[in-house]
Specification:
single chain, alpha/beta, Glutamine Phosphoribosylpyrophosphate, subunit 1, domain 1, Rossmann fold, eight-stranded antiparallel β-sheet, six-stranded antiparallel β-sheet, 18 helices, globular, binds fructose -6-phosphate
Length: 612
Amino acid sequence: MCGIAGYIGKRQASEFLLDALKKLEYRGYDSSGMAVLSEENTLNCVRSIGRINALEEKLKGMKSNGSIGIAHTRWATHGYPSEANAHPHSDCSGNIFVVHNGIIENYKILKEDLIKNGHKFQSNTDTEVIAHLIEERFKGSLEQTLADVLKCIEGAYALAVISKNDPGKIVVAKKSSPLVICIGKNENFIASDSSAVAGYTDKVIYLDDGELGIVTKDDCKIVSIANNNKVHKECCSVDLDVSEIRKNGYEHFLLKEIFEIPEVVKNSTRGRMILDQGLVKLGGLEVLDQDKLRNINRIIIIACGTASLAGFVGEYMLEEYAGIPVEVELGSEFRYRKPIIDSKTAVIAISQSGETADTIASLLEAKRKGALTLGIVNTVGSTISRETEAGVYNHAGPELSVASTKAFVSQIIVLALFTIYLGRTRDMSLVMGKRIIEEIDKLPCLIEETLKNHEQIKSLAAKYSKYKNFLFLGRKYNYPIAREGALKLKEIAYHIHAEGYAGGEMKHGPIAMIDENFPSVFVVPNDSVYEKMWSNMEEIKARRGKIIAITTKGNKNIEDIADDVIYIPKTLEMLTPVLTTTPLHLFAAYMGMEFGFDIDKPRNLAKSVTVE
Ligand code: F6R
């Protein structure tokens, strides 16, 4: 949610900043901008509405020389997307420029006071108050002024500031929104996440909440905002593969990421399964006192959006095979409840980005209440991975398409591994452990087989794109998948409205809407609830509703009732979601393409939701 980049060193700052913004564009893409401080100590700022290529075009005709600069790609919170509301924002004199990710909650009152003192505002954003506050309080040191200003700011921020009144540095600060300082040779970089510096450096310092960084060409000093004491920070090496953030011949990241899923499953499971012992080895959990883990009697999974739907699949798996009660909670709800938690409760935060604000807030609340906190996270070094006691990385690689696909499947895979890990310390037999591992091992080939249906799914998208509403239905393990199918369709092909429902709930309301113009997508592998779902299909058919069914190869009789059928290979019931998901992700992607949408960046969305 908003991407920040900064550069100080020997290159033309604008070249790095543009490259970094393109890599960060998934975080927000309604407008963008950059400010560069030239060698002659002049500040030039360029802003543009729309995507980064619009900014790039604009930069062609403008002066942007200089080796110090900050840049931003925006996802609007305060103020509609416009050039005036795009960052960087400046003070009245244009001497100070600020980029910001987060929300300044008390900006209105601060703005009123500043206006009374004669400040002139140019935007409707909350961010602009920071530039004016720095202007008002500046006494020669940018870092001291910013620290002073931050003491009266309420809310969340990742900030980068430059000023011609104190040149030669970028001052950054963080509270609840991510920010990294990346260390090069005679040059340093700032970014919302380290993927922005891939190809430049792999040395990263993660700023923590309450810290302020003073970044120069050759140095980086971190201090506490509260007391100005120096903070010693470790510089970590991160594995950043530039090829992973290219489309590699695919028209869209979304399609590339869906077609990568077989490889992702291999990466998520590599070295983690010991077949002959029916055991799973999760290095990230070995730091824990294993008795503590053995003694947990309840799991709460916290996540948002698609990650929460993976959590629901995990709920079925963990209850059925590990025998532990599980609840799945949305981060945005859990944080405001009064949850009953004790030291025997494990709270698992699931997040691709590891930066989702509501998931983090809930996790911290659970930690405060004494829960054992664990993470299933894709982004290495992210806030959730650092705030949890232990966890498991997905190893799905960078996910750049805003809609989560490969990370979702890898979350289900990690939950299956986690089920075996916990189950084998409880009642799960050696035979069952081995059986699940054998089936997980076959999944990459089975997903390849499922992906071969892509042409059929593309033509189904063309056939069904004229419909305005869809109902997605599933039961048990595939109920969350029905919801995921609906979420993806409305997210990527947003001219269509879709709802995901439990098969059995359909006649408690939604059936009223069914007629020949309201198709239903049935997620019906050949499993323990197949017969029940068959009755639901009959009920839809009796109302002349169209049916697209996703079912197991060999279920030929389904062609008697469904208008269209997509076949998936056979697997263990608990793993069917891994195979039923792919056709639904492809269906949503091709539907979006039918409407000519940018399926990597659907309107109004951002990849990493770092505000509440
Ligand atoms: C939907 C989607 C979102 C995310 C949600 C959580 O396709 O991508 O619903 O799943 O915003 O994000 P993470 O997993 O980064 O916490």
